[in-house]
Design a protein that fits this description.
About 35% of the residues lie in helices and about 5% in strands. It is mostly helical. The chain folds into two domains: about 200 residues, Cytochrome Bc1 Complex, Chain D, domain 2; about 130 residues, Cytochrome c-like domain (Cytochrome Bc1 Complex, Chain D, domain 2, Orthogonal Bundle). α2 runs antiparallel to α9 and α11 packs across α12. The longest helix is centred in the first third of the chain and has 16 residues.
């Protein structure tokens, strides 16, 4: 990103955030008043589509690495331990467990559609999947493995040797491991949510109440931060514009947001705006997994980000709309597996 773009993001997340949000809010109000019978071409959200031109051999190799516990120092857990692909792409815990079962600082975001985000992690401190994956593999609180040990394990496995030779000219290397993992993660998209069908012109893909919920989502100003193909993931924003979400609580280092990375006052309590794709099946919510109630999460966001107390009827309608954002992975809706218990 160009230097000017980076500066504008900091302004959005810092002292000028409130003014910027009200500009977006006014635009959202005007847009919501249109209320077309069918979605128009200038909708602030676009459908998810499957990634194209991904090498099948690299995708399959990345899938195997993603599910292999040998990528952790103690051979105890894999990437899939925190990102369950048979359910919602996260681990359903308020905060994930890392090396030797120790609790980590943040709630694990879903891996589904993560490739669509312009930055990764709650702090937005990684710009590429490759950089994030390397940090997870080497992190002493996460996988806690060295490249020397990881490559030794992979090269000792004949199946891996064959798969890497097929997909890459130089066999198992740091670069090819990271590329395979990232390629697989780019395949983890969930298209064909009911709302995607609605955006493509199928007006009956969602109910009248769900359409009304979408109109309220726009008119209240939620669309200011949750828009685009991923309904989020493309902005940095302060958590708590109109009210302090940590009032009466003891704040942790994680609650400081990007400040813990940049040490800039303008980044205090600033986080990457999460995607709302599949949000109905990715509880618990917020960076600390503070609530498992989507209704409560929406009400909290309205209060602290928009300065509004939403009537229960409007809350229910917005939550109903959010349920239309649940997409499909490998042809099956994530909603169908959301209630399965963890292994």
């Amino acid at each position: 990103m160009v230097r000017g773009g980076e500066r504008s993001l900091r302004v959005l997340a810092g002292r000028s955030a409130t003014g910027v949000c009200w500009v977006f809010l006014c635009a959202a109000l005007a847009l919501a008043d249109i209320r077309p019978d069918t979605p128009s071409e200038d909708e602030p959200v676009t459908p998810v589509v499957l990634a194209e031109n991904l090498d099948p051999a690299k995708v399959e190799l990345g899938r195997k690495l993603f599910q292999d516990a040998r990528v952790s120092g103690d051979n105890a857990f894999s990437c899939a331990s925190c990102h369950h692909l048979d359910r919602s792409g996260d681990d359903e815990r308020p905060r994930s467990l890392g090396f030797e079962g120790r609790q980590l600082d943040f709630n694990a975001p879903t891996i589904f559609n993560a490739a669509l985000n312009y930055r990764l992690n709650w702090l937005g401190n990684f710009r590429t999947l490759e950089a994030q994956n390397e940090s997870v593999l080497l992190g002493p609180r996460l996988m806690n493995i060295s490249w020397e040990e990881l490559l030794k394990r992979i090269r000792a496995d004949r199946d891996y040797q064959s798969a890497f030779s097929t997909a890459y000219t130089d066999g198992p290397q740091r670069s090819s491991v990271l590329d395979a993992l990232a390629t697989f993660q780019r395949s983890l998209l969930t298209p064909n949510a009911p709302f995607d069908d609605y955006l493509r012109g199928a007006a009956d893909a969602i109910t009248d109440d769900q359409q009304r919920g979408y109109e309220l989502f726009k008119s209240y100003g939620c669309i200011a931060c949750h828009q685009g193909r991923n309904l989020g993931g493309n902005l940095l924003q302060k958590f708590g514009i109109f009210a302090d979400p940590f009032a009466g609580q003891s704040m942790t280092a994680a609650d400081l947001g990007r400040y813990s990375v940049t040490h800039l006052e303008s980044d205090r309590q600033v986080f990457r705006v999460p995607s709302l794709r599949n949000v109905a099946v990715t509880a618990p919510y917020f960076h600390n997994g503070n609530t498992s109630s989507l209704t409560e999460a929406v009400g909290t966001m309205a209060r602290i980000q928009l300065g509004r107390e939403l009537p229960k009827q409007d809350l229910d309608l917005i939550v109903g709309f959010l349920g239309t954002l649940t997409g499909k992975y490998q042809g099956r809706s994530l909603a169908a597996s959301a209630d399965r218990t963890a292994p």
